[in-house]
Amino acid sequence: MSLTETSIKTSETALSRDDLARLVARDIAPGSFVNLGIGQPTLVSNYLTEEQNITLHTENGMLGMGPEATGDEIDDDLINAGKIPVTELPGASYFHHADSFAMMRGGHLDICVLGAFQVSVTGDLANWHTGAPGAIPAVGGAMDLATGAKDVFVMMTLLTREGASKLVESCTYPLTGVGCVTRVYTDKAVFLTGPGGVTVRETFGCTLEELQELVPVPLKAAPAVAGG
């Protein structure tokens, strides 16, 4: 389906980290069980609504995590996998680390939201090691999440500090998962990935043509209902 560029341009400026987190939160289906990865994805918890009835899982052993804790809410014993103080919602539960990983590996999570160094056109994910000399690999539970979750969303800046696209034809960094990513949320656009290539659901602060100049893979506009 061919769409005009203006039909997928959502805003005149690129999205901030909080704007992006708000967008991801909006797209999570009501009643979902969700894991939020370390880094940008943790912000998503601040924008989930009570009406969505989302249950957040954290791999260090908790179901029913609430938004990030601030001020008097902070309890040093209540943290997420990224060591950020969090709140607990009514009905929250705690369990052994091994049980938490069993939930991840057993297909019990509807969605995980992860950061990434690279995502390929077919949804391959690289987010644990750049291969740089002296870099400390830190895979954590990312491989378990990428393989075990029913849907994998990635949340990242589109470009590196050097201006290179993180959305690539083929990942050059060690893989976390193969063909696992379905959506990529960035400051400049939302991409849908899969066997058919990359489609663009919406853009922020740029046209589809301008976006194509930044990304070294073929892009096409997605039908308006694709991200619904």
From TrEMBL:
Source species, domain of life: Bacteria
UniProt keyword list: Transferase
UniProt feature coiled coil, ranges: none
One Pfam family it belongs to: CoA_trans
SMART domains: CoA_trans
MF term (GO), any: CoA-transferase activity
PANTHER family cross-referenced by the UniProt entry: KETOACID-COENZYME A TRANSFERASE (PTHR13707), SUCCINYL-COA:3-KETOACID COENZYME A TRANSFERASE SUBUNIT B-RELATED (PTHR13707:SF57)
Assigned protein family: Belongs to the 3-oxoacid CoA-transferase subunit B family.
The protein, known as: 3-oxoacid CoA-transferase subunit B
Source organism of this protein record: Arthrobacter nitrophenolicus
